Amino acid sequence: MKFEGLPREMIAMRASQEIKDGDYVNLGIGIPTLISNWIEGKDIMLQSEIGMMKTGPLAFGDDVDQDLINASCQPVTQLPGTSYFDIFQSFSMIRGGYMDVIVMGALQVNGRGDYAGWSNPARGLDMVGNIGGSMDLCAGARKLFITMEHVTRDGQAKIVNELSYPATTKGKVKMVFTDLAVLEVTPQGLVLKEVYPGLTVEDIQSVTEPRLIVSPDLKEIEL
Q1: How far apart are CA 132 and CA 69, in angstroms?
Q2: What CA–CA distance (Å, rounded) separates 94 from 92?
Q3: Which residues of 143-157 are buried (b: 16+ CB within 10 A; e: fewer)?
Q4: Is residue 105 within a helix (H) or strand (E), and if so which, with residue range?
Q5: 6, 149 Cβ separation under 8 angstroms
Q6: 3-state secondary structure string across 94-106
Q7: What dihedral do alpha carbons 211, 212, 213, 214 form, nearest 10°?
Q8: What is the pLDDT of residues 158-167, one digit of tens each?
Q9: Residue 205 pLDDT more than 90?
């Protein structure tokens, strides 16, 4: 089953609200990169693992510089105080645990905070993918957020009891932001904190495999 939910840009906007002034943040490929468009007015240090600190929003038109890119190879802008360094220093920051927040896209997430995001074997051997720097990013993250659509294009659950794709990391995910809901990973299980306006708890549960714990403060997603 599929429900009409938030567009990808709005998923990114909602996730950006959990990033605080002073945070050092790395954004993964896909929906996470859109978060850079929602940081205006905040003192947030966006780090690109290719060697750029304090990247700004995505660049368009005359602002495009082919040497200034994010992890998705999308052009980005500079902000006052932007600095550059080699990839050795970049991954020293990542592996050293200096990133306050890592935001990644995902193919699957489970209720224990495991997630799969680098390989979809169903696509065949020619499109298996590679893990890249995602394992390092997740291992070093102080907080790991996931942004993704709640279900696949054919309506299959992406929030599952057990991963069927190769794991990127285990037990690290703290929050999941989808087009239908906001969930928190806790020792007791997945807590449903927010739902898309007009949807019910039953709607979200119908497209989520793990049994959800409903927050006593459950509310609609505010945009």
Answers
A1: 17
A2: 5
A3: bbbbbbbbbeeeeeb
A4: none
A5: no
A6: HHCCCCCEEEECC
A7: -140
A8: 999 999 999 9
A9: yes
Residues 99-142 have pLDDT tens digits of: 999 999 999 999 999 999 987 766 654 555 666 788 899 999 99
Q: Are strands 52-58 and 45-48 parallel, antiparallel or unpaired?
A: antiparallel
* Placement of tokens 């720097």 in the chain: 133
User: 124, 132 in Cβ contact below 8 A?
Assistant: no
| Cβ proximity of 56 and 77 under 8 Å | yes
Report residue 96 as tokens. 């050293």
How far apart (Å, rounded) are the C-alpha atoms in residues 32 and 102?
A: 9
In angstroms, how far is CA 147 from the centroid of its own chain? 4
Q: pLDDT at position 129, please?
A: 60
pLDDT of the residue at 124: 55
State which amino acid sits at residue 217.
D
CB atoms within 10 A of CB 197: 12
Please give the CATH number for the structural domain made up of 8-35+98-215: 3.40.1080.10
Numbers of helices and strands, H then E, in the chain: 4, 13
At 172, give phi and psi (nearest 5°): -110, -25
Q: List the catalytic residues.
A: 49
Compute the distance between CA of residue 76 and CA of residue 152 in angstroms, rounded to an integer: 29
> What was the pLDDT predicted at 123?
62
Tokens of 68: 């200034």
Instruction: For the full predicted model, state whether its pTM sits above 0.85.
Output: yes
